[in-house]
Amino acid sequence: MLVEAPNLGLRALFFDVFGTLVDWRTSVAREAAAILRPQGIDLDWAQFADAWRAEYQPGMEEVRSGTIPFSKLDVLHRRNLERLLPRLGVTGLSEATLRDLTLSWHRLDAWPEVPAALARLKTKFLIAPVSNGNISLMADLARRNALPWDAILGAEIAGDYKPKPRVYEAACAAFDLAPAQCMMVAAHSNDLQAAAASGLRTAHIARPNEHGPGKGESAPTVPVDFAAKDLAALADRLAV
Amino acid sequence: MLVEAPNLGLRALFFDVFGTLVDWRTSVAREAAAILRPQGIDLDWAQFADAWRAEYQPGMEEVRSGTIPFSKLDVLHRRNLERLLPRLGVTGLSEATLRDLTLSWHRLDAWPEVPAALARLKTKFLIAPVSNGNISLMADLARRNALPWDAILGAEIAGDYKPKPRVYEAACAAFDLAPAQCMMVAAHSNDLQAAAASGLRTAHIARPNEHGPGKGESAPTVPVDFAAKDLAALADRLAV
Fold first, then answer.
1. In chain B, which residues touch A (CB < 8 A)?
2. Mutation site for B-interface testing, chosen from A121, A131, A150, A182 by largest number of B Cβ within 10 Å
3. What is the pTM of this model?
4. Among positive and negative, which fits the CA dihedral A228, A229, A233, A235?
5. ipTM for the whole complex
6. Is 3.40.50.1000 the CATH number for B12-23+110-237?
7. Segment B80-106, tens digit of pLDDT
8. Beta carbons of A160 and A48 less than 8 angstroms apart
9. Could you tell me the residue ranges of all domains in chain A?
10. What is the C-alpha to C-alpha distance for residues A35 and A111, in angstroms, rounded to an integer?
């Protein structure tokens, strides 16, 4: 049994992953360059990562709206990639290359303070990703970055994508907790706003460079319970 | 990316938990005694654990047959307990006591060699429980016994109970693997038989004392890929 945080009754912390815990932009740019440059393809790799990421919300919206059945994020990433490449003038890639590129999202690096801060937070709280990434992707990121999850929750468990309420609610239910005993931790105000609407507590982590230098949320734009400059600062605030 | 096991193409190991990794009988007997003895109740505690466990398969069968919708194992354990207690002449327990007793199943101890053997196996394979226990129960057992899971798969992910094929198949799908790349590890031949029918490889672990001295499977009664005297021996066989 975990000790409760003083005055909060908090038992579990749920984490957004892309942008909040891992630097997807630098990592995808690096992976894409490593895969495509040897094939004679030259692109602005950071721009490539941005363009791929720009397809992310529209792809998930097709699931959220019920236009297509739930498909795991790897499948959406692949489809979004195939939509993107012709626009960049890249054609004729092999199946193996397309597959390897799609799995770039399984090889993202954590922001530097994350592994140690998560280990601290785990001494006091149940911790789980509540990401739109699928289970295998989360498992690969956990191995790569030593993220010591108690369980992998999120979109694939819920069968829908954030910010749909059922994703947050399924995570609380998986741990047998009331929403008020759980806190969503994210670098994105819309994620936190949706979690709060389902009754969860919220913590914002500043990631001012998520989309490139100065292009990220340095502060929340919605009311939150905590706002911290990074995950180590959140651990300090939660007295871990 | 994990290295493939020589000649097998194995990528993931899935584990039965109750009986295979943890000694539910001794642990439940100990927990029940600790909770009920101070209330002046005296029972044969090992027999109490056996009687509670005897309700396990019939309870799940109501879900498997579609008689009741999927309910997590904690819910079935509670209902089975309430069916059992009057037969033992135990009545009038408080809600808090019933709840605490039900959570005995979250406080089971691993067989001695398990944590170290799992850590060895994790160096070569993705590892996950594919148990009928719910996510929160698996997370509590993992913390208590230092079981270093990559993810928690099993009944709650699949929405049904083993040995229904969908439980094994949902686990393979969560890791994006074909059944032949996965191996079910269990101390119960019926579990392994069902996993093999879905195309998984199988390993039997001897637990001759699971249901009391000499009352457990010391060898498989069905064809398996590996049969080992304990989990450390399986790790030896898989050259970890």
1. 74, 126, 134-136, 138-139, 142-143, 149-153, 156-157, 174-176
2. A150
3. 0.96
4. positive
5. 0.95
6. yes
7. 999 999 999 999 999 999 999 999 999
8. no
9. 12-23+109-237, 25-106
10. 23
